[in-house]
Description:
Oligomer: single chain
CATH architecture of the largest domain: 3-Layer(aba) Sandwich
Strand content: 25-35%
CATH topology of the largest domain: Rossmann fold
Distance between the termini: 70 Å
Number of helices: 11
Structural class: alpha/beta
Shape: elongated
Radius of gyration: 33 Å
Number of strands: 19
Helix content: 25-40%
Low-confidence stretches: 182-191
CATH class of the largest domain: Alpha Beta
Number of domains: 4
CATH superfamily of the largest domain: von Willebrand factor, type A domain
Amino acid sequence: MYVTGRLPLLVALGALPVVLLGVAGMDPWAVAGGWIALCVLLALAEAAAAPSPRLVRVERRSPGRVLLGQPAVAELRLRNTDSRRLRGRVRDAWQPTAGASGDRAAIDIPPGESRLVTVALLPRRRGELASRFVMVRSDGPLRLAGRQARIDSVGTVRVLPPFTARRHLPSRLARLRELDGNTSVQVRGQGTEFDSLREYVRGDDVRSIDWRATARSATTMLRTWRPERDRHVVIVIDTGRTAAARVGDGVRMDAAMEAALLLAALATRAGDHTHLLMFDRVIRARVTRVDGPSLLPALVDAMAPVEPQLIDTDWDAAFAQVRAFTSRPSLVVLLTAQDAADAARGFLGSLPGLTRRTQVLVGTVADLPAPAADRPDAADVYRAASVARADSEAAVVAGAIRRAGAEAIAAGPEDLPPRIADRYLALKAAGRL
């Protein structure tokens, strides 16, 4: 049972008779008590006369999947199986990060009919969001009070990574087309595959001249090359405790996901095979043997429910999982946060075992320092000293990574995805991938 705002107003209306009867010589407390008792009995009668909300049948239609920060609409189909008309309100109990409005929607359902109620969602957190039940309120005839019931009905929405780094993809695809020989710009390097012959143009590399074809032709002919395909690119996202550190508006793991999605989109257009592993001490997500247009949907679907774990990553086990993808991957991209020498010992100890077999790229999401204040106070000075010390430790770890045979890239959350993609294209252009 519940009461509406009309009941307190009705009780307040009794103040005037109490004052008048008190002037006439009657006991005002007795009059007030009688009036309140009458209002309570009236509210109980209202609740008893209200249709039963438990006779409402709920059917859901949820969007299923939606990008983080994008609006979505969930639908409730409410059917009144009672013989009386149901007037009241309904609230869908989505968790707060789903971004649903807390307002209760008004409903008016004749007996045997149904009504559609829409709930606007604006997800603020990646992962699985759910509503476990629906609260239905049924008003009495005078709408002084009514009955309410919780109706169990589960609705879920999987909120996917937003892939905001997609805006960098067109420019990188244009460069990839140049490498593929679809424009006048060609590349030459060890490990590239012969593509075709064309006429020599001033500025071309003279080492690519095909002298036999030139002898058979009236002009100088040049060999063109294209990057090799069917390479295996393994992307490893560290889901350990360092991935939970906040950087900018999100956490490090969110930026790592953006970098992985951009690289995967580029690699699949280049004809390479992309594998994903999200790992700390166990596998949190794994995508392999998926190519073509279905790759990105598979990646975002696997990434969506993964959250950072407050444990240290077992890198020996992680690299063993990398070797399980393919016997000799062409490129392994490790997206982790190795910026403290003491914490990176386990990672640096395991890294040489991987670099002996393949090329390794280590990408780190760096925390950008805040702009210096015009008139710094003591807190600003200590903050600047902390940033300088962190940069110094990160430089030490980056040097150790290079000595172990890998390449280190550190950038802010907005800059890391394009830098990883650019390095992939540079390896393609140099014939090393």
